[in-house]
Every structure is written in structure tokens, then in C-alpha cells.
Amino acid sequence: MTTFGRRLVTRGPEMFEQAFNDEDVAESDLVTRRGTFRAVAFRADGHEHMALVYGKTKLRENVLVRIHSECMTGDIFGAMRCECGEQLDAALNTIVREGNGILIYLRGHEGRGIGLVAKVRTHVLQDAGMDTLDSATSLGLPVDVRDYTPAARILQHLRVQSVRLMSNNPDKIAALEENGITVASRVPLLMPPNTHNIAYLTAKRDRLGHDLPQVDSFPLPHAR
Question: What pLDDT is stored for residue 1 in this prediction?
Fold first, then answer.
């Protein structure tokens, strides 16, 4: 198990490994339209991230968790060339409906880690017919350099025993387990395709191994 340079801390009868220094974490209540969350802001790997905790999760098993990669165009502006904004909304709604869970919002993941400027440049190539992978590699950029270690660290900080991970991406499961987090099960988070993102979803399914069965049901345009 990766220890992230943590130290042992005694709090009452408990002893646990501290995942962050006190100056790198801040917590407060956050009242939203969906309800009140515990907002846990934390610094890791040069970025400031956020975990939204709903209900009781401490020392619990099978906690519903979503690890969400930052996507300004989808999360904020509702871009339809990806499903990110819809997944963010659906994950928060599911957590509230269940009564407890955690959403971890990881910064520095824009465009699978290449950054916002590079991501917008790939959009130009995608509009010309390239898929999401080739549009990056043709510019000399990596396909995916996201690091999920900060998510594992905050789950350790929150003392979650095991998680049910809302994801279609097997890499997230592997990353958490490599960092000592038990993934009890995977919960699909499937958004209906549209004409703007079907090529994107198809590439993620066929070339990145994401589990996206809804792609098969999308009606293909009639051949001319």
C-alpha cells in the first residue's frame, strides 16, 4: 500500500495514517440546491481539489463515490461533445438520492490532463474528423496523463473503508486499488449519446476500454 509520506495520528481510541498536513486541507458546510454537503478542499500534486461529502461516510464500507475529472467546457458550459457535465449532475443526484456518498472533483485533469488550451486545439481536429485520441497524438500530446492518487489520498483522509465507484473507466478502479483503496463494486454512470458526442463515446469504448453499452443503441445515420 502506498503511504504518501503520511504519519500516524491518535484521535481518541483511534489510530490512523494522516494523508495530508493540516495546512493542505480545509472543511466547511456547503449548502447547495441539492442539499448540504461537507466541502473538503485539499491540495495535492500542485492543484487544489474538492471532495463533497453527503451524509455519513466515515469508517463505512461500500460508500458510493464518484471521481470526476475537471472539464470546464462540459461541467460549466454544458458542452455536448462530451458527457462530463451530465455525469457530474447525475452523480450528485444519485449520491443525494442514496442519502450518503462522496464526489471528488480533481483539478488539473482538463482534456485527460493535457490542459485547456491543448484541449481546445484538439477540438478543431475533431471537428475535421479525427477522434479524441488521434487529435491529441497528432499534436504530440499524450492520450491520458491523469493521476488519481489525490483521490485515493482524500478517501484515506476521510477514512472510507471501501467504495462503490461510479465510473465506466477501468483505469480508475485500478488506480484506486493500486493506492490501497478497496473497490467493492463498479456502478455504471451511463449518459444517453447525442449526435455531438457519439464519436467521442465510441472512441472511448473501442480504444480506451470504457464500458459504454449505450453506444450500441445509438441510431447510425443512413448511408448516402
Answer: 39
